[in-house]
Amino acid sequence: MAWERRGGNLYYYRCEREGGRVRKRYVGTGEQAELIAHADANLRLAREQRQAREGAELKRLQALCAPLEEFSEAAGVLARAHLVASGYRRRKGEYRRARA
């Protein structure tokens, strides 16, 4: 979203994605364009605040999941060690009983 000066006049344009390309769409000029620009700024601010909240929530959830992921990895290591100690071998990602 941008105000552009052309020939001494101010015009308000919106930048929109259309099929992978960015295109400018003329919105208007004058008081009506100022109202639309203000509404666009409010929408942008609300979107940025929502993204910040969601980012903080994601970080909080990742911090909560970190110990569980460590535990899961340790359990996997122990399971593989037990299979190898029991005489299994790994073949193409699968554990198979070793031939005697």
Describe the structure.
There is one protein chain. This protein is of the alpha+beta class and 100 residues long. The chain has one domain. The protein is 55% helix and 31% strand. A three-stranded antiparallel beta sheet has the order 1-2-3, with helices on one face. A two-stranded antiparallel sheet has the order 4-5.
Protein traits:
100 residues; alpha+beta; 5 strands; three-stranded antiparallel sheet
Q: In brief, what are we looking at here?
A:
With 100 residues, the chain is of the alpha+beta class. It is 55% helix and 31% strand. The strands form two sheets. The protein has a three-stranded antiparallel sheet, covered by helices on one side. Strands 4-5 form a two-stranded antiparallel sheet.
Percent helix, as a range, is 55-70%
Determine the structural class based on helices, strands and strand pairing.
Answer: alpha+beta
- Main-sheet strand order equals 1-2-3
- Shape, per Cα inertia axes: elongated
Number of domains: 1
* Rg measurement, Å: 29 Å
Helix and strand topology:
Layout (H helix, E strand, L loop, with lengths): L1 E5 L2 E10 L2 E8 L2 H55 L2 E4 L2 E4 L3
